[in-house]
Design brief:
271 residues, 7-stranded antiparallel β-sheet, 6-stranded antiparallel β-sheet, globular
Length: 271
């Protein structure tokens, strides 16, 4: 009996020690969960918003955009002024409460629009920090510009035939559009950029403006996020934008992260 139990107990003891050692070196169990926002139809596919939360702290916000929505966007359409949004989608409660980002409004610019670099078919994804009713009420009668723009950005006045002079590129029911100066001065078409949006001298939205051709490449990409100053109390802007393409589901995940005072280092969006 002694010869049987002795070795067995020794082996179990070794296993226990190894198990203890392994547990002590184990990485913390991920705690990131996803809070779902709203969804809306975009050319036969459902676009949905969400937020990633770690221990009740929001670490990223974003939207899931199926490739089919991009593929099915109409190739022709009437030019309408002001442009008409296709969908307005609320963000989840945790995103609205912790970042002040309220909703996503999507536009399909089938012919593009001035200035020259943007005269190509593209999508506007406006993430607003004001309520949809306030967005709809903007008529560009308030022509005040912000006192500070992101580094390398300009807020130009653009003359558009049959429409007039757009002060700060202000579009009714959208707002003013600050653009990268270097990009604005180019003559070749853009592919993707991040716009800082304003009205009544205050930042009110940020916007990935992305060409249809870029999205049809079915590749992940990132864009530099401008450092936007002067945000209203209760609003926190992200500092990073990644568009992640999942070939398995044929869907883009637009991820905004790097929010100040969050545990962004642990968010799944950085994995």
């Amino acid at each position: 009996m002694r010869s049987f139990l002795g070795p067995r107990l020794t082996t179990l003891g070794l296993v226990g020690l190894l198990g203890t050692s392994a547990c002590s070196n184990a990485q913390p169990v991920p705690t990131v969960t996803v809070a779902e926002g709203g969804c809306a139809d975009l050319y036969g596919s459902s676009v949905c918003t969400w937020a990633e939360v770690d221990n009740e702290q929001m670490v990223s916000v974003g939207a899931s955009v199926p490739l089919a929505a991009i593929q099915n966007a109409p190739a022709e359409g009437e030019m309408v002024w002001p442009p008409v949004g296709i969908a307005t989608i609320p963000l989840p409660d945790v995103a609205r409460e912790q970042s002040g980002i309220q909703s996503l409004k999507i536009y399909w610019e089938v012919h593009g629009h001035p200035p020259t670099p943007y005269l190509v078919p593209h999508f506007d994804f406006h993430f607003y920090t004001i309520a949809p009713a306030e967005v709809e009420a903007m008529d560009c009668s308030d022509l005040r510009k912000p006192t500070e723009l992101p580094a390398g950005y300009v807020l130009p006045d653009i003359e558009i035939p049959e429409i007039g002079n757009l002060i700060g590129l202000c579009v009714p029911q959208m707002g003013m559009h600050a653009l990268p100066k270097a990009e604005l001065e180019r003559t070749e078409p853009f592919t993707g950029t991040l716009i800082a949006g304003y009205y009544a001298a205050k930042p009110i939205f940020f916007e990935p403006m992305l060409t249809r051709d870029l999205l049809l490449q079915q590749q992940s990409f990132s864009l530099d996020f401008p450092q936007i100053a002067g945000v209203s109390s209760g609003v926190t802007m992200p500092t990073r934008f990644d568009a992640k393409y999942d070939a398995t589901t044929a869907t883009y995940r637009f991820v905004f992260s790097g929010f100040p005072n969050t545990v962004a280092a642990t968010t799944a969006s950085q994995e």
